[in-house]
Amino acid sequence: MASPATGDSDQVLVEANGSTRTLVLNRPKQLNALSSAMVTGLLKCFTSYEEENTVKLLIVKGKGRAFCAGGDVAEVAQSINNDTWKYGADFFHTEFLLNYIIATYSKPQVSLLTGIVMGGGAGVSIHGRFRVATGNTVFAMPETALGLFPDIGASYFLSRLPGFYGEYVGLTGARLDGAEMLACGLATHFVPLNRMPLLEESLKKVDTSDPFAICGIIDQFSQQPSVKGSSAMNRMEIINRCFSKRTVEEIISALEQEAPSVADKLVTAAIQSLRKASPTSLKISLASIREGRLQTVGECLRREYRMVCHVMRGDFSRDFFEGCRAILVDKDRNPKWMPRTLDQVHDGVVAKYFSKVDDPQWEDLNLPTRSSHGRRIVPKL
C-alpha cells in the first residue's frame, strides 16, 4: 500500500516492501512538476531513510506519463509576484539541499525514468546512483527558453558529459531519448518499457545496500540500445568544434559556419534554439557549466543558489518572469527579453550572478558535511 510521505500532502506517496521504499511523485496532471510540498516531502524521506537501518534501497518513480517535468516554476513566479522573492529563494534552498543529499547519499537510489525528465526531475534522479532510462524517456534542460539556467546541480553533471556535449544540451535545451542518455552517461542503464514492471518487482525484494548486487539485478533486465543515426551523439565532432568556443556569440557563429556545409537538422535546430533563448540566460548558463567543470557538486549547488537568488530578485534581468509569462501563463511563446541581444549582456553583469546577494535577509546555501562528493558520470560510448 502507498501512503503519503508526509501527513499533510499526498503529492509524494511511499510504498514499503521489506527493505525497499518506493517514492512515487504523485501529481500526474501536472506531469509531476515539483511543488514546494513535494520537495519538502522528498527531503524528509531521504533524510529519515538514511538513518533507518531497516531501509536499504530507495526507488523513485513518477505516476502517470512523466517521471517529473521539472520544478513548478510557474508556482514560484506567481508567489514571488504576489509576495516576495524570499518564497522563490526558500523553494530553491530546499530543492538544492535535497539535490545535495541525493548526490552524496549513502544508500543506493534507483530512479525509473519513464516519460518526461526535465529540470528539477533531473535533480532528483541524475544525482542518484542508478538512473534507468527506457523507450519513452525524454530528457531535457529547457531553462534558457524560460529565462532561467540549468540549475539543480546541472553545472556539475552537464560539465562531466563527453566533450562539450553538456554545453550543447544545457544551452539549446535539446531533447534526448533513453539511448542517448545511456550513451552520454546521464543514465546508467536502459531497460525496455515492457520490462520495467518486472525490474521494479525484483528490486522490491532486495535486502541489501550493496550497489554491485543492485547493479546485477538491473543488468538482468538491461539492453544496449542503438543510438539513432540522426542523434547528436553521432555529431560529436561538430558539437565539440562549436560548443568549445569561449562565448555564446562565438558558438552561434561557429554553428552558422557549419550550416552550409552540413545538411544537418541538428545544426539548424541548435541555431534556432539559441536565437530564441534569453540572451542573459545563455551567458550565465555557459559560465556556470564552465565553472562547474572544476567544482564539487556542493560547490556547484552553492554557486547556483546565488545565481537563482539573483534571478528571483530580478537584480540584473527580469527574463525569468517574462519567460514564465510567455511559455507557461499566456502561452504566446513570444517572450520579450531584456536585454534583447547577446552583445548587450556584458561580462561584468554575468560575473555579478556569481556574487553574494546584497540583502540582510539573504544568506549563502549552507550544506551539511557529507562523506561523498557526488556521483561519477560514466559515458557508455
From TrEMBL:
It catalyses: 3-hydroxy-2-methylpropanoyl-CoA + H2O = 3-hydroxy-2-methylpropanoate + CoA + H(+). Transmembrane segments: none annotated. Pathway: Amino-acid degradation; L-valine degradation. The keyword Hydrolase applies. The keyword Hydrolase applies. It comes from the Eukaryota. GO terms for molecular function: 3-hydroxyisobutyryl-CoA hydrolase activity. Residues 21-354 form the Enoyl-CoA hydratase/isomerase domain. Keywords: Hydrolase. One of its GO terms (biological process) is L-valine catabolic process. Its EC number is 3.1.2.4. InterPro entries: ClpP/crotonase-like_dom_sf, ECH_dom, HIBYL-CoA-H. Belongs to the enoyl-CoA hydratase/isomerase family. Hydrolyzes 3-hydroxyisobutyryl-CoA (HIBYL-CoA), a saline catabolite. Has high activity toward isobutyryl-CoA. Could be an isobutyryl-CoA dehydrogenase that functions in valine catabolism. This is 3-hydroxyisobutyryl-CoA hydrolase. It comes from Triticum urartu.
